[in-house]
Write a structure and sequence with these properties.
129 residues, mainly alpha, two-stranded antiparallel ribbon, two-stranded antiparallel sheet, 4 strands, 49% helix
């Protein structure tokens, strides 16, 4: 199990300092943080900070629209765990309504460029796990 450096991502503070319950997407990204540490032995510190600063959806969009892949993406690629990237998460059917077709295509292209194949349900997979 992941250690306690991952804070509670079920709530966040709005611009007025009021605590608000985070949407399910933020909790799902928190699960990816825990899995990256537990399964891939990767401590996604910058990603964690982005989640705390920007929330789940904005973090995903910032990473996706960057002109280059993040250090975290590279670290997960080196570990053959691109299934734990934001790009893979974006392609899950449950997330389709939050991203445009263009954004999903960009996520798919980035994964393909790094050797992933996409299955029929748009999930990215590699042949190494």
């Amino acid at each position: 199990m992941a250690d306690t450096w991952i804070t509670d991502l079920t709530h966040y503070f709005d611009e007025n300092g009021e605590m608000i319950k985070a949407p399910p997407q933020a909790r799902k990204l928190g699960e990816y943080l825990a899995r990256a540490l537990d399964e891939a032995k990767y401590r996604a510190t910058r990603f964690h900070q982005m989640l705390c600063d920007h929330g789940g959806l904005e973090t995903a969009q910032l990473l996706l629209h960057s002109s280059h892949v993040s250090e975290g993406y590279t670290a997960l690629w080196e570990r053959k765990r691109l299934d734990l990237t934001v790009e893979a998460l974006i392609l899950e059917p449950a997330w389709h309504e939050l991203f445009t077709e263009e954004e999903r295509a960009k996520a798919a292209k980035r994964l393909k460029d790094y050797g992933y194949t996409l299955t029929g349900n748009s999930r990215a997979e590699d042949g190494n796990h």
